[in-house]
Design brief:
- The chain has 527 residues and is α+β, with helices and mostly antiparallel strands.
- It has three domains: 7-65 and 238-395, 3-Layer(aba) Sandwich (Beta-lactamase); 75-227, 3-Layer(bba) Sandwich (D-tyrosyl-trna(Tyr) Deacylase, Chain: A), CATH 3.50.80; 401-451 and 458-494, no CATH class.
- 24% of the residues lie in helices and 17% in strands.
- It is built from eleven helices and 20 strands.
- It has a six-stranded antiparallel β-sheet, with helices on both faces. Strands 12-8-6-3-13 form a five-stranded mixed β-sheet, covered by helices on one side.
- Strand 15 and strand 16 form a beta hairpin.
- The termini are close together.
């Protein structure tokens, strides 16, 4: 701890981590910075490299916005091969993908615009085939980053990302392993709606590495642009859309030397991070979405990156596109906070991994950047998410009430009964309300006794638990009585009854109003 550190808060955060998370057996990498002066507020294994999961999207989108620009667009082009005479095209129509991940989805364009362009050329019949052309990605394993698991690539969230995509390359919750013919089927339907007949097939696919012959006689029929990159980034971060992040990596690598675009994009993303002052030796950026098990990053680097991003111009910062508490992937998070919107963050989830990184605004005080990386734990991810929420509540100054076990001699009176340690599969109605598993208390003060008793003659009792949650979704560990009194003496007093409304924090309605800090200095990478 350095000069200016709130020691009481540090100890309280330590105790909460030891009570709510560490009993699960998982690894915790955490870092919290005060952005105005780069002061470390709290850390725990902040330099340990861990799986970022979907928090990885911060690196991909940050590099995309910086390198490609917020107004960048992907483009899908239709070409005509052959002669056009008397309304008849003798040859093929070639649909060339430019990597647009939104094509055919609710967020992006369809192919009716291209079909209109065909009709405007006077073409009423195509005596040839519909051909898909993907010059960015090849076949088979080339459609996925190397670090993805087989199970991920078969599920909808792990669908391949190619040069020519359609409806995020998925049907429901299942991935379409070869989606390029799906785009051709959609093109045939769009042409039919414009009364353009196609006599040939719609199954021919040409990919990166295939011979396509000279292009000099090709006729450009029409082009469909994607939404702007900043609009895609907004959806990508708020709803954690994996194909959008992977498409950004492909765009970063398109047309750069002889490397495959995915590998070139990955290297460009790593180079961008290095130019921003983040040491490449301390992280591995293997993909854009975070599904790769090869990704490695520390909580310190994530919190440092967010602190630096906050100092950028409004409208171009990642914080301007990330989800606020109560929306997006965090629509049910941060219920302990009077106003969840003071948190702007990105979640990350894989099997055995639950992460959270973002910005916490403490109105009237300061702004914090934070990263909580949790992996290798046993039990439900719901428990870990609850722990992360409570850490932010404590950082925001919200008092947390402990649970006193029912058999403690500290106090025999209790209020609400809660179920502790109940599996997620058990519904709340299945827990007996009179089970006496735990009792909520606002204070750990011992009631004064009418007579003074020597401490040596007091029978041993079960110790209370510190920082136990008031619901059944988090873990607790015993603590000695002296530690409890010492830690709770450092906490702010609980709000009096009826004062919650008056103490409600103001809403953060405009992210551009986030404080950017008084200093441009960044925290050092070394602890």
């Amino acid at each position: 701890m350095g000069i200016g550190v709130d020691t009481a808060l540090w100890i309280s955060l330590d105790s909460l981590a030891e009570a709510d998370y560490l009993p699960s057996g998982g690894t915790l990498g955490a870092m919290v910075y005060r952005t105005r002066d780069s002061q470390v507020v709290w850390s725990r294994q902040g330099d340990t490299r861990m799986l970022p999961a979907s928090v990885q999207k911060l690196w991909a989108t940050g590099a995309g916005l910086s390198e490609l620009g917020p107004d960048f667009r992907w483009r899908t082009t239709l070409w005509a091969q052959g002669r056009i005479e008397g309304g008849i095209l003798t040859g093929n129509l070639v649909l060339e993908g430019g990597g647009d991940p939104t094509l055919g989805s609710a967020d992006g364009p369809g192919l009716m615009g291209i079909a209109n362009a065909v009709a405007k050329l006077g073409i009423r019949e195509v005596r040839g085939n519909l051909v898909a052309l993907d010059s960015l990605v090849g076949r088979g394993p080339d459609a996925w980053p190397q670090g993805w698991t087989i199970s991920s690539s078969r599920d909808g969230y792990g669908s391949p990302v190619l040069g020519l995509n359609w409806n995020q390359n998925r049907i429901g919750n299942r991935a379409i392993l070869e989606p390029r013919p799906e785009a051709l089927k959609a093109l045939r339907k769009a042409l039919w709606l414009k009364n353009v007949a196609v006599t040939g097939t719609d199954t021919t696919v040409k990919v990166r590495g295939d011979s396509i012959g000279p292009r000099r006689n090709w006729i450009r029929v029409g082009t469909v642009p994607s939404p702007r990159l900043d609009d895609v980034v907004r959806v990508c971060l708020r709803e954690s859309v994996n194909p959008y992040a992977e498409a950004i990596v492909l765009a970063l690598g398109a047309g750069r030397n002889r490397l495959p675009p995915r590998e070139a994009g990955r290297r460009r993303m790593q180079d961008w991070a290095a130019r921003k002052g983040f040491e490449p030796s301390r992280m591995v950026l293997d993909d854009g979405s975070g599904l790769s098990r090869y990704n490695q990053v520390s909580a310190r680097l994530l919190a440092k990156m967010l602190a630096a991003d906050l100092r950028g111009p409004a409208g171009e910062r990642l914080v301007d596109f990330m989800a606020r508490g109560g929306s997006g992937t965090m629509r049910r998070r941060f219920k302990e906070l009077p106003d969840p919107s003071v948190v702007v963050a990105k979640t990350g989830t894989l099997d055995g991994v639950s992460n959270l990184a973002g910005i916490l605004v403490r109105p009237g005080r300061d702004t914090l950047s934070f990263a909580f990386l949790c992996s290798g734990y046993s039990g439900s991810a719901r428990v870990v998410r609850k722990f992360q929420d409570r850490m932010l509540a404590l950082l925001a100054g919200v008092p947390l009430r402990p649970i006193v076990p029912a058999d403690t001699a500290l106090d025999t009176t209790s209020t609400d009964s809660v179920a502790a340690g109940v599996p997620d599969s058990v519904k709340p109605s299945a827990v007996r309300r009179d089970s006496g598993v735990g009792k909520v208390r606002d204070s750990l003060q011992v009631r004064p006794s009418a007579t003074t008793v020597d401490s040596g003659s007091v029978p041993r009792v079960r110790e209370p638990e510190i920082f136990a949650p008031i619901d059944s979704s988090a873990r607790t560990v015993p603590a000695d009585l002296d530690s409890i009194r010492r830690h709770w003496a450092n906490l702010p007093p609980p709000l009096p009854r009826g004062a919650a409304d008056s103490a409600r924090l103001p809403a953060v309605d405009d992210l551009s109003s986030f404080p950017r800090g008084d200093s441009t200095s960044l925290p050092p990478i070394s602890p």
